[in-house]
Amino acid sequence: MKKLVLLFTAGAITLLSCSKDSDNGTGNSDFAALEDSVTINFVNKTAIPGYEDLLAKATTFNNVVTALNSSTTEANLTAAKTAWKDMRKTWEQCEGYLFGPVEDDNYDPNMDTWPVDYVQMDSLLNSSNALEIADIEGLATLSLRGYHPIEYILWGTDGKRAAADLTAREKKYITSLTIDLKNTCTNLRNSWISAGGNYSAKVLAAGKGAQPFPTKQSLFTAMAAALADICEEVGESKMKDPYDAKDPNIVESPFSGNSTTDFKNNIVGAYNVYMGTFLGSNGKSLHALVAAKNLSLDNTIQQQFQAAISSFDAITMPYEKAIIDNAQRIVVAKTMSNLVTLKGTIEGDLENFILTNIKD
Amino acid sequence: MRIRKIYLAAALLACPALLMMCTKPAPFSDEDYDPRLSGGAATVFDATSKAFGNVIPGLSNYDQHIHDLGDNSVDQTFVTAPATINSGLGPIFNNVSCRSCHHNDGKGSPTTGTVTSSMLMRLSIPGTDAHGGPLAVPGFGLQLQDLAVFGKTAEASVKITYTEQVYTYPDGTVTTLRKPTYSFVNPYTTLPVNLMVSPRMAPPFFGLGLLVMIPESTLLSYADENDANGDGISGRPNYVYDASKDKMMLGRFGMKANTATILTQAAAAYQQDMGITSRIFPKESSFEQPQTDNLGDDPELPDSLLNAVEFYLLSLAVPARRNTTDGDIMAGEKLFAQVGCSSCHIPTMQTGVDVRYPYLSNQRIHAYTDLLLHDMGDGLADGRPDFKASGNEWKTPALWGVGLFEKTNGTPFYLHDGRARTLEEAILWHDGEAAKAKVKFSQLSAGERGQMIAFLKSL
Predict the structure, then answer these.
(1) Would you tell me how many other CB atoms lie within 10 Å of the CB of residue B264?
(2) Rounded to whole angstroms, how far apart are CA atoms B276 and B86?
(3) B303: buried, middle or exposed (CB in 10 Å: 19+, 13-18, 0-12)?
(4) Which of A237, A251, A258, A278 is most buried per CB count within 10 Å?
(5) pTM for the full model?
(6) Are residues A106 and B50, on separate chains, in Cβ contact within 8 Å?
(7) Residue B383 forms contact with A (CB below 8 Å)
(8) pLDDT (tens digit, 9 = 90+) per residue, B43-74?
(9) What is the largest CA-CA distance in chain B?
(10) ipTM score
(11) A182 contacts: CB under 8 Å, gap ≥ 6
């Protein structure tokens, strides 16, 4: 999936040029201690709180949709839409660290499969299937589960669905789908905590020889690679494919008009991982590691993140319309270009920094 | 004077010739090659979970674009027809996108019928088809589709059970292997009594372009069908019918070297695994079965996308080896050869030349395979012939990247059906032609066995 990889020579040259930059004299033992706090903070202040928050948002979403099911008012429909967007926000930001169980155990497609399978959804809704959670779990395809079928039902194809338009079967269906989301988020949260799958122990054991992170370098490389991957997924796939094809049909989250917000939250999530500021937390992060040895690189990364994030705000039309509007295409192209630049810096300079400075 | 002029002219002519002779490069010795470059120039330095998904460095902008199109296509989730995008899933299928099975461009898990499942069941009955290939099962075809879109009936579901068996090394060390058995639950119609079944895990995507480029003559030079050299290892090529070329060709892909080209491999996976028809296989996997959709929308996959996927698979780079100067790993590499593993897992080959693909041409690669068929004994046998491959034979799988499965897969699984949970278990399942090598491995000290595993993990 990844396109740019450090090559021998290119890497070596970049290393040489970087290592001349300002080294503020952090001692080796201080730096090793810093590596440890970055690891601990990543687990306790970013990864686990992120999934805890996602579970909280999923629980709220389920409660709100359950209320909508029993009392189908415009206010309850609006509340359901808001809860959908709130949950999306956390989820998209959690995609800033898309490695570990979320990837290994396919929690991502369990929640976020695109596109929606309209033909199957119609057959399902027109059938006598009870649409209980067990029935949902027994469906053969994930395109009938997760965010996007719910989005389709809440907003409708034109984004203007009224509460009165929701059928009883649809309401039952999305109620079960939100239980399904909650279950997936529970499993995802549990996969990290010590009372569950305890993936955090594997991260915290980085550098002790055991898989998946026998060295600290391998953990930090994985973190950086995840940052680069999300930049690539947004800038070179989710935005670019519909942009190149000028095809609104292949834009994700079109019903809610939330696509650009989704894209931006992906990059905000990655920036939060870098800065250690996820969900308002603060603590030593990759940013501190880089700043300790190479302030100018840290500045560059921060500036490029900020430039990319703020450039989304110039996309003022819904994304599926922006890609076919001449003026908006220019700002979309600018954002994609910012993301390519940022990805290049992460894959080149940041990953080289890690290879050069994190030797344990 | 006249003569001197000639001497001068001759001397001038000779000089460049001499210079050229002086600078003519001598072949490199082994030590001059970097052992990390498993794919030669088509190698990338990435040991993360995404290590199998990198493009070969240095593609032209146009080639990169096609690669990206293919990359995007293998990610796409198909949905039921008719649909505006990604139309044509099923009606019966094994999974919904390429990457659903080929997790991170790699393997996946040895289960069936779930979104994380990466295993399928090939089926046939005794006999051969018009091309000498396996004979389709009436009502089921050559592969079991264990899922169906809502309202249709899957062919059957698969139940997998494992029996633990203890293996004791000569030094008394005990380890446990697990042997799978498969049964079919709720078949939609009666399965024949003489049914033959072969479980297959999704293989990794990368390095295929280099394997295509190994000259047939090189591979045949390792064949020893009648074991003329008496080393107990025969090794023979599979020759299979290729639908995209409409001719018999040397098989290079598939667990039994039962597919000759990347294009046919990809098109068959689209059709059989996902129910997506293409110009190579324009009929639904459910053709002439009650599940078929009769929509008349075939082929469902545009040629341009199929071609892009073919190129994507051709142009994925091989991940570099790690820690090649580590003492234990170097010792393990020697043991790998001494024990006899490298008789079939051929460490080094040279690719041929194709002017279309300079980055794949003339590369010194370390795939650790001969792409030939070997009798691997009754324990691994599937009892299902596939073209020239017997029910006991399997193709030597490439080992490059095998040390990264723990990264790319979360939990790694090895061998054709994922029964081996560790590389050690995978070695201990070797039998038949590989029995001698396995026995020699078992006779190594625990430390030496560890060195050999460490070597494999560096691949």
Answers:
(1) 22
(2) 9
(3) exposed
(4) A278
(5) 0.90
(6) no
(7) no
(8) 999 998 999 999 999 999 999 999 999 999 99
(9) 102
(10) 0.87
(11) A55, A58, A59, A61, A62
Query: Which residues on chain B are in Cβ contact (under 8 Å) with A144?
Result: 150
pLDDT above 60 for A21: no
Q: How far apart are CA A252 and CA A111, in angstroms?
A: 13
Whether B85 and A115 lie within 8 Å, measured CB to CB: yes
Give the pair of three-digit tokens for residue A302: 């921060």
Residues of chain A contacting B83 with CB distance shorter than 8 Å = 115, 117-119
Q: Which residues of B touch A129 (CB under 8 A)?
A: 150
Mean pLDDT value of segment B231-235: 90
Per-residue DSSP letters for B245-286?
Answer: TTEEEE--BSTTS-B--HHHHHHHIIIIII----SSS-S-TT
Please state whether the peptide bond connecting residue B27 to the residue before it is cis, i.e. omega within 30 degrees of 0: no
How many whole angstroms separate alpha carbon B51 and alpha carbon B320? Answer: 9
User: What pLDDT, in 10s, does the model give residues B366-397?
Assistant: 999 999 999 999 999 999 999 999 999 999 99
Query: Are A115 and B46 an interchain contact pair (Cβ–Cβ within 8 Å)?
Result: no
Give the separation between CA A78 and CA A75, rounded to whole angstroms. Answer: 5
Taking residues B75-95, report their average pLDDT: 95
**How far is the C-alpha of B41 from the C-alpha of B159, rounded, in Å?**
44
* pLDDT, tens digit (0-9, with 9 covering 90-100), for B428-449: 999 999 999 999 999 999 999 9
Residues 6+ apart with CB under 8 A from B268: B243, B259, B280, B281
Q: Interior CA angle at B242 toward B239 and B247, to 5°?
A: 80
Residues of chain A with C-beta less than 8 angstroms from the C-beta of B103: 106
Amino acid at position A232, single letter:
E
Residue B271 Ramachandran class (φ > 0 left, ψ -120 to 50 alpha, else beta)? alpha
Query: Residue length, chain A?
Result: 360
Contact A109 B64 (CB under 8 A): no
CB contact under 8 A, A104 and B410: yes
pLDDT tens-place string over residues A278-309:
888 888 999 999 999 999 999 999 999 999 99
